Amino acid sequence: MNCKRSVCVLICVFCFCCVLGNVKRTFRIQELTVTEKKLNDCKNQKKLCVTSSSDCHYMALDGAPRVPRTPENFLNTSCHYRIHEQSFTCRWIQTKDVRSETISSFIFSRVQDFIYCPAILNMHSTFNLTIKSKSVISQKEQFSDIYPLNITDITQAPRPLITSVNATDSSISVTWTSATTPITKCKIRYKRLNTESWTETADFVSSVESQFVIEGLQSFSVFDLSVSCFHGFGRWSDWSEETRVKTTESLPSAALSLSYYVDSDENSGIRRLVLLWKALDVTDARGLIRGYEVSYKPITQPSLKKTRHTSHLKAVVLVRSEEYEVSVCAYNSAGRSPDRRLTVDASRTHDVPAVRSLWVYSDGSSLWIRWEYEFTAVNISEFAIEWSSATDGEHRRWERVDGSTFTVRLPGIEAQQTYNISVFPICGSLAGPPNNISADLQHGALLDPVGFGLLNVSSSSVALRWSWKEAKPGVCVLQYRLVLTGPDEIQTLAVFPDKQQHSFLHLHPNTKYSVHIHGETRDGNFTKASLDITTLLLDYEEMMRFAVPAVLLLLIFGIFSVLSRTVCREYLFPIIANPRYSLIGRWLLNPHLQGSDKICVLKLDGLFLMDQQMEKSVFVVSDHEDEVPLKTSEAAEGTALWKPCSDDEESALTPSSLPEYVDLPFLPDSSGYVQTGQIPGERNSD
User: Fold this and answer.
1) What pLDDT is attached to residue 58?
2) CA geometry: angle at 327 spanning 325 and 333, to 5°?
3) What is the DSSP-derived secondary structure letter of residue 653?
4) Residue 620: which of 648, 650, 646 has the closest Cα?
């Protein structure tokens, strides 16, 4: 049981020590000032002078305190004596381990006796100093080390008092006094407003009342200044109270940085020249810029020069398709700046594209604007951001950032206000058209995607479209993101108001996909719109890619077959009649047949039965074997089919060339050959 108690006690002590070790030590500056009237004698100890009579019994005869010293509670102790006030002051840093007020007192001591304590504060006095600090609550007393002091060494000049300051555009004249004590030299320190470092002048000879001129200052600038002086011995005085003064205006020293672009309306044919310039730096403005003067004139017609004044950093003027000379300058109460001149060809536009993916979101106290820019042959030097309240379009604010910056915080944004924001790309003297967006502090960008739907689908791709409209979403959207989810893949893309359609490529055929538009917020994501899509098995283009060549190939093959058959039959392999396929041909080719020189007639009976109105063919057979003349005549029914002809007629019927062969049907078996002109079985027609 005793062991457990011991362990508990050790744990408690350890924890208490840890707590004490974790207590942060704090510090505070202590200062105590005494005059000769506050110094008291110690009756029995002539070597002591104290500010509190109760301190006499704490000191031994040798001046040492009877209690231990704690010098760690009296850090950076510094003392000084002021002649004109006859006061003695010490400052030190005291630790605050215990949060309680303390009362401090001085104990003066030296080896020789003090004759009269109020008289020890003089220019030739030397003594030792001990500082005592006593806690008001705990009554705990602490003593510092013994500090040996010489009044001559710690004598401090009186603090000067600045009586007047006069400023010009580049100098400040300062006048001050240093009480009635003699002063040998002084110095002045000054700094521009909102800067940390001071600039000190060299020491210069001075007197009780002095004046000094600080030159080479920036015009129209605010300076803080103070003065410190020196007796020639001891210490420099404390710096006087700071005095604030502003130099006057002067002529602006630099010309404006001017850029332009030409905006043309194809429908109306109107051309607008948009001029942008950068506000002068304070060092160049040398005063409060009160406005800008814009002048422009056609080079071919200088008499048409026009001039206008504006307080904005942008001007829009109507021009024609010709060259103009443009000049812009700034002016303040002192005068005008040098002119910035440009020669502008308003007949053509320049290839400086606008920024992309512009978006605005809120962090609760300010608006953040971001954008993207496609790196092209045009080297963008900076971006100009213009914003103004929708209800106060005349009060416009501008911000310029480097060409490598794509995110800017817009200051001075008020709640319950809608702002119109524009971003211009700048390339030297050329500018690009702005990209515009509206936003407020509660919602950020006031644009919402709507009309999300399918534009096109194929076996390997999906095309989607949507549009944007001005709205006030329920939450502040950091950005919108388009997400496609499939069986084994996810594709995502950030979408902004300048993008209204997108195609997902390299997808799988006949596969179901889900597409969503997600809104990203600081608290999470939400789904704005969704769509389920199934890709096609085959594309119409793919089917046409295979079907059209096949049809063309078949068509070409058919045409080629018909043409080749016709060409072969007409020119290469013509059809020649074979006499062996007919009875007449075989009869004519029979060499054993004999006959007279009389004309023989072959009467075809029942040869053409298909149409009784068809013309009948009559063949004339010559006794020459190599000639087979053919004659067709129109014979009426019931008349003789053939009659003998004379030699002249026979010679006239003989063709001069081989006749054309004609395919004829085979003669029926009942047909006969008649040499006498009569058909067997019938009577002579004579």
Assistant:
1) 65
2) 160
3) H
4) 650
